[in-house]
């Protein structure tokens, strides 16, 4: 028989191969989990983070319960290899503050992210848009901290009904761009005004010069006529 980690045991439930490691004092995802496991229970342990390829050798996994651990970070690629079959992923009651949406890329599973100390910001907004949340779990995604203090203690989905965290930064960038463009525009206008005024001045002088030309010519013609007569 395989030497399973202490507190872990395989069983068959409703025709599905199940591997239970609940309350086993685990500090990492155990190796040597049977490859044909359909349901994996790693809840109520002390696992602090999920490394890349943590479940790569479990291609038939349908359900993964990681609730009630100390998970504070999820590496990109932690769930690689689970995209095809996994339909339930429970990460509730952990220590997740911020996770990149890339960690869940291609996952079709229903994900429970409730009861974590979330930082409500653009990153969480992008994550929520990427994952398919477990029915009824969204109210448990609460702002433990936020880029805006008035959101603390509120459900995230309630907050993003009025606030677009990702657009806050975009607006700041847009304003900076507008100010820069306005600055350039003002410079161009100033130059054009100066240029037109300068040209008007030159044009005025030129007109005065042209106006003065006929009288000078008359005088010279008169003088040449007089000299001829004399």
From TrEMBL:
Annotated transmembrane regions: 175-196
Main location: membrane
Membrane protein topology class: Single-pass membrane protein
Cell compartment(s), UniProt: Membrane
Tree of life domain: Eukaryota
Extent of the signal sequence: none
A Pfam cross-reference name: LRR_8
Keywords: Leucine-rich repeat, Membrane, Repeat, Signal, Transmembrane, Transmembrane helix
GO (cellular component) term, any one: plasma membrane
Matching InterPro entries: Leu-rich_rpt (IPR001611), Leu-rich_rpt_typical-subtyp (IPR003591), LRR_dom_sf (IPR032675), LRR_TM_domain-containing (IPR050541)
Sequence similarity: Belongs to the LRRC3 family.
Protein name: LRC3B protein
Species the sequence originates in: Stercorarius parasiticus
Lineage per the UniProt record: Eukaryota, Metazoa, Chordata, Craniata, Vertebrata
């Amino acid at each position: 028989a395989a030497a399973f980690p202490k507190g872990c045991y395989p069983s068959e439930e409703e025709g599905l191969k199940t591997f239970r490691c609940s309350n086993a004092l685990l500090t990492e995802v155990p190796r040597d989990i049977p490859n044909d496991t359909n349901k994996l229970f790693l809840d109520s342990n002390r696992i602090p983070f999920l490394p890349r390829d943590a479940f790569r050798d479990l291609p038939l996994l349908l359900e993964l319960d990681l609730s009630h651990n100390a998970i504070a970070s999820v590496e990109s690629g932690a769930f690689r290899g689970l995209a095809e079959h996994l339909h339930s992923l429970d990460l509730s009651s952990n220590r997740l503050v911020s996770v990149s949406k890339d960690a869940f890329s291609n996952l079709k599973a229903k994900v429970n992210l409730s009861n974590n100390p979330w930082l409500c910001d653009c990153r969480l907004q992008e994550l929520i848009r990427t994952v398919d949340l477990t029915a009824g779990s969204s109210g448990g995604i609460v702002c433990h901290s936020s880029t805006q203090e008035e959101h603390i203690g509120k459900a995230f989905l309630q907050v993003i009904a009025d606030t677009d965290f990702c657009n806050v930064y975009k607006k700041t960038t847009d304003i900076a761009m507008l100010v820069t463009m306005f600055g350039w525009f003002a410079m161009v206008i100033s130059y054009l005004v100066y240029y037109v005024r300068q040209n008007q001045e030159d044009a005025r002088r030129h007109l005065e010069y042209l106006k003065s030309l006929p009288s000078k010519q008359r005088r010279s013609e008169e003088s040449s006529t007089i000299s001829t007569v004399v």
